[in-house]
Amino acid sequence: SRLRSAGLQLVALFAPEHGLTESAAPGERVASGRNAATNTPIYSLYGSTIAPTDSMLAGIDVMVVDLPDVGARYYTYIATTIEVMKAAGRHQIPVIILDRPNPIGGAMQGNVLDTAYASMVGRLAVPMRHGLTLAEESRLAQADLHLGVELHVVPATGWRRDQFFDETGLPFRAPSPNLQSVDALFDYPGTCLFEGTALSVGRGTDAAFQQVGASWLDTAAVLARINALHLPGVAFAAVSFTPRQPGDRKFADTLVAGIRWRVTDRKTFDPTVTAVHLLAIIRSVHPDRIRIGGSFDRLAGGPALSEALLRGDAPQAIVASWAPALAAYRTRVAAFLLYR
Fold first, then answer.
1. What Cα–Cα distance (Å) separates residue 225 from each residue in 16, 113, 217, 219, 277?
2. pTM, 2 dp
3. Torsion of CA 191, 193, 278, 205, to 10 degrees
4. What is the rounded distance in angstroms from the CA atom of residue 274 to the CA atom of residue 119?
5. Are residues 330 and 143 in contact, defined by beta-carbon separation less than 8 angstroms?
6. Of the candidates 68, 20, 85, 1, which has an alpha carbon nearest to the alpha carbon of residue 32?
7. For residue range 266-309, what is the model confidence (pLDDT) as tens digits?
8. Are 288 and 252 in contact (CB under 8 A)?
9. Which of 314, 311, 277, 309 is nearest to 296 (CA)?
């Protein structure tokens, strides 16, 4: 409505994962269609194609991207934005990014993706918690991928890198069905790794990505070991939950034993370090049941993490091995930052 009131003609809408209403299940193919109110075509970029086709771009003079990123590498919106930038560049169509705050701030944590394993859930050589806004990531992508596109950014006025979303005064809207709170967004850069294991991440509950569990999980043994570490900024508790129609089909309608995370200090909490310690502990307690595999390497940005966990490497050593690449990343992205 704002574009129309400014005298611009809205030719088409493009839908990423979860659709324009952000209600489609993760991984669910989004169908193309038409906007009921305006009869404007809606083209899906998470269905039969992930990139705008030539016919979709017909009659378009400028592409506007306005998407809510969540601050974690796994989220597909930057991958979709990159496909838009590539297609627009081929047609000499400028791209404008309407930027938004990174809801979990500018901290940069986790391992850096090996670009040999780039995918929709990890397109750029960034860490699990990348610390960038969508516009900053797009600027990085333009340089790293040598995208020949005219890119413009409308910054998020007044945002600071140390500011979390619930400190901005802006209304929170869940970016996807299983990320229903700012607290869940803080956990997500770590708990998402459990998607590549046999454990549930709480899909189909009211605390998805804030808890992990399985029908066979020995919560007492796991809690004793994880609590003994006194990891900064987080507390753990035993919980039970029953996933209802979970999109991952794990333990549907089954009561499972779980571990619930509670962030006690956002500034010292590192979800990626926390996840690696918890993965290592659960593997030590249940070596034959955790099943680290499937999509794990895609989420982890390569096989190094799964190989280390399966070897039984100490989590402290695993985390320490990330430091050089993470330091190099912080230096490399400095030129693309838009906010202090």
1. 40, 29, 14, 10, 10
2. 0.95
3. 40
4. 24
5. no
6. 20
7. 999 999 999 999 999 999 999 999 999 989 999 999 999 999 99
8. no
9. 309
